[in-house]
Design a protein that fits this description.
CATH superfamily of the largest domain: Glycoside hydrolase, family 65, N-terminal domain
Number of helices: 1
Order of helices and strands: EEHEEEEEEEEEEEEEEEEEEEEEE
Structural class: mainly beta
Helix content: under 10%
Shape: elongated
CATH class of the largest domain: Mainly Beta
CATH architecture of the largest domain: Distorted Sandwich
Number of strands: 24
CATH topology of the largest domain: Beta-galactosidase, Chain A, domain 5
């Protein structure tokens, strides 16, 4: 017979006052035990006794509450994770690797859209219903700097991580190259991603032959051909196979469009004239020559990437 607590309206006679109750014949038959031990009263004022040999069943403690999930991404969301930056508007999601180029090494945090239809948990430049335009095929996006006869490129997913730097917040990357300090500040507004890039001379001497180029190769899943057309001296429009367009542009008066092969993305290519149009799997570059920069001087240029489905 399983033992259970004895609950009564009136207390048993505790002659010794030690809480131990020795049952007489009638109570032994009634409760099936010879002894019981007083435990206190319940909320109803009834008296509770544990029969001898009774082992209370102790419920295990409840499991700890799971940590709250991260808030869902909403228009204007921006965060850092694993040294990478993730931005999202209502239509466009962009991921930057730790070297300031588009295209992450790590998976996007919870709440950021990725091109799961083609198996991607990382993010480059994703504007549904288009496929991620950077991570398909060979992922190429980043920048090239030439200064005083030296050249360096940051396109991590292409194999170029030559300029050291880091994000100080989700929209601001800083780096340096041969005494040239780079501040890259980005703004995401709907389908429009804006780079404000400031180059500051901290070398202590003049920097000559300064050029900054933004380069990318827009692709779709298993469709790598794009029609790249120079639509202004500082603007190139890439029409993706299957629809959708990506425009790379700047208002810098000295800017020009260069196009090069995907295996020479880190080398600034040959300038193309206004109206040039070609359908190929090539890298588009927006090149901005800058005036010689004296010691302590700086120059800021603005570049836009505009997407449309």
């Amino acid at each position: 017979m399983a033992l259970s607590p004895i609950i009564v309206a009136e207390p048993f006679d505790d002659r010794d006052g030690d809480g131990r109750i020795i049952f007489g014949t009638l109570n032994r038959k009634k409760y099936g035990v010879s002894e019981a031990f007083y435990q206190g009263q319940n909320a109803a004022g009834e008296y509770i006794y544990w029969p001898k040999g009774y082992t209370p069943v102790v419920a295990p403690p409840p499991p700890p509450a799971p940590p709250p999930p991260p808030p869902p991404a909403t228009p204007g969301t921006a965060t850092l994770a694993n040294g990478e930056a993730f931005l999202q508007s209502d239509t466009l999601t962009v991921g930057f690797n730790a070297f300031g180029g588009i295209g992450t090494v790590y998976a996007a945090p919870e709440g950021f859209r990725t091109d799961t239809a083609t198996g991607l948990k990382r993010v480059g430049l994703y504007r549904p219903p288009l496929d991620d335009a950077i991570l398909q095929g060979r992922a190429i996006e980043g920048f090239v700097i030439e200064a005083s006869g030296a050249r360096a490129a940051n396109m991590q997913l292409t194999g170029f991580s030559q300029i050291k730097g880091a994000f100080v917040d989700p929209t601001h990357w800083q780096g340096s190259f041969n005494g040239l300090h780079i501040d890259q500040v980005v703004t995401l507004d709907g389908d429009r991603l804006v780079f404000a890039v400031t180059l500051s001379n901290r070398s202590g001497k003049a920097i000559t032959g300064l050029r900054y180029a933004r380069a990318f190769d827009p692709d779709q899943s298993d469709r790598y051909l794009t029609t790249n057309k120079v639509i202004a001296p500082g603007a190139v429009e890439s029409t993706l196979d299957g629809g959708g367009k990506i425009t790379l542009r700047t208002d810098a008066a000295s800017a020009y469009v260069a196009i090069t092969a995907y295996n020479t993305a880190s080398v600034i290519g040959r300038a193309r004239p206004l109206g040039h149009s070609k359908t190929a799997d090539e890298v588009v570059q927006l090149v901005i020559p800058c005036a010689d920069l004296p010691a302590g001087g700086s120059v800021t240029t603005t570049i836009e990437i505009i997407t449309s489905a």
